[in-house]
Amino acid sequence: MKRILVTGGAGFIGSAFVRYQLRRYPDVHIVVLDKLTYAGNLDNLKEAASDRFTFIRGDVANREDAANAMNGCDAIAHFAAESHVDRSLAGAADFISTNVAGVNVILEEALARGIKRILLVSTDEVYGSIESGAFAEDAPLRPRNPYAASKAAGELFGLAFHASHGSPVLITRGSNTYGPYQYPEKALPLFITNAIDGQPLPIYGDGRNVRDWLFVDDHCSGIDLVLRNGEPGQIYNIADGNEKQNNEVARRLLELMNASPSLIRFVRDRAGHDRRYAIDSSKIRALGWTPATGWEDGMAATVRWYKENEWWWRKIKRGDFREYYDRLYGPLLSE
Ligand code: NAD
Ligand code: TYD
After folding, report:
1. Alpha carbon distance, N-terminus to C-terminus of the chain
2. Which of 35, 148, 196, 236 would you label with 282, given CA atoms 20 to 30 Å apart?
3. How far is the CA of 89 from the centre of ligand 2 (A)?
4. In the chain, what percentage of residues exceed pLDDT 70?
5. Which phi and psi (to 5°) does residue 238 adopt?
6. pLDDT digits (tens, 9 = 90+) for 81-123
7. Which of 95, 76, 279 is nearest to 161 (CA)?
């Protein structure tokens, strides 16, 4: 694999994947196509500066942008997406444009160019909630929020292209990911940066919702393995098995930060809040994947990173984020 197109490479996981590729494969050239939405940030790619790296600003749902970026590439790792559930609950038009129509454009243009591997990065949220046990890859898709529905739709286009045109499509379904450079709308970076500022940690509902936390570099190593060694047409779950209730996550973060548990504030629940996500990752483990960073080490490293990199998140929190935060959390925190 000589030249890989990474869409959404200026986001949280995409930028970690770019760093991972440049670090691990001395001969690879990475092309990033990113629209630089509110979540895209060139600061995330500072460490990627190299003559083996090209950045293109553009939209995956725009045919010319997609075609131009994939020229000369032999593989695509498709991360670009609208990624936040709360935003999808407030309006899903951008989710449909990027996560569904955008996937279709990538698939059509990749087919026209005979691209050899197309990996669609998806999520465990496509399965919906599960009370006990864990979903394997052949479980039915029951997405329960607009973000998850748009990701499921994108995946189905991928599988349909594989079935009808033989497109070499691979799908990964990763669990909740955390680590450095995550936009502070997501639970972990929101809680950490709020705690640094002595601000409340807003926990939805009773805080007993369960997520399975995966360190970002482990998510990247899983995606890399599937991109290189997975079987086209197949789906691979990626999860570490770190199931935690949100309450437990918030309490442990506050402990690690020597901050008071009184910062925890229970607020009105998110609409349709999925109770528990759990997936069975034996298929990718059989391919040779093992996560390298446990929950305690990953959390400590993440807290340390946000403490040491205020330059990165303070300007985000002062910008458009402020308006988003006040609109969503203002009413919740004053109820
Ligand atoms: P993110 O929101 O941090 O980054 C998304 C990136 O995509 C941004 O750089 C943004 O500018 C770019 N983008 C958005 N719309 C675009 C468009 N139309 N054209 C080009 N670029 C566009 O997201 P993330 O958390 O890094 O997630 C990356 C992928 O991983 C997504 O597909 C997401 O569904 C999936 N995923 C995320 C998680 C998680 O916990 N964060 C878990 C499983 C799967
Ligand atoms: P999030 O990071 O938004 O990921 P997802 O919704 O994709 O799982 O949220 C993780 C969990 O934390 C989820 O159960 C919702 C909860 N949560 C809160 O309790 N408060 C918050 O302010 C946010 C953003 C999330």
Report:
1. 54
2. 148
3. 13
4. 100
5. -130, 115
6. 999 999 999 999 999 999 999 999 999 999 999 999 999 999 9
7. 76
Closest ligand to C-alpha of residue 276 is: 2
308 is catalytic: no
Q: What is the pTM of this model?
A: 0.98
Q: How do strand 3-7 and strand 117-123 relate by DSSP bridges?
A: unpaired
Residue with tokens 């079935």: 163
Is residue 40 within 8 A of residue 8, CB to CB? The reply is yes
Amino acid letter at 309? N
The full set of domains in the chain, from first to last, is 3-177+215-238 (3.40.50.720)
Average pLDDT over the chain reads 98
Secondary structure of residue 160 in the 3-state scheme = helix
With contact defined as beta carbons under 8 Å apart, do 28 and 21 qualify?
Answer: yes
What is the spatial distance between Cα 145 and Cα 26, in angstroms, rounded to a whole number? 40
- The pLDDT, as a whole number, for residue 49 is 86
Any catalytic annotation for residue 236?
A: no
Question: Which entry of 34, 59, 127, 147 is annotated as an active-site residue?
Answer: 147
Q: Residue 22's closest CA among 67, 69, 54?
A: 54
187 Cα to the center of ligand 2, angstroms? 5
- Which of 51, 28, 53 has its CA nearest to residue 42? 53
pLDDT at 225 over 90: yes
Please identify which residue in the block is written with the tokens 């973060």.
253
32 CA → ligand 1 middle, Å: 13
Hey, which bits of the chain come out as E strands? 3-7, 29-34, 53-57, 75-78, 117-123, 169-174, 177-178, 201-204, 210-212, 214-215, 235-238, 243-245, 264-267
pLDDT of residue 319: 87
Any ligand 1 atom below 6 A from CB of 102: yes
Cβ atoms of 267 and 325 closer than 8 Å = no
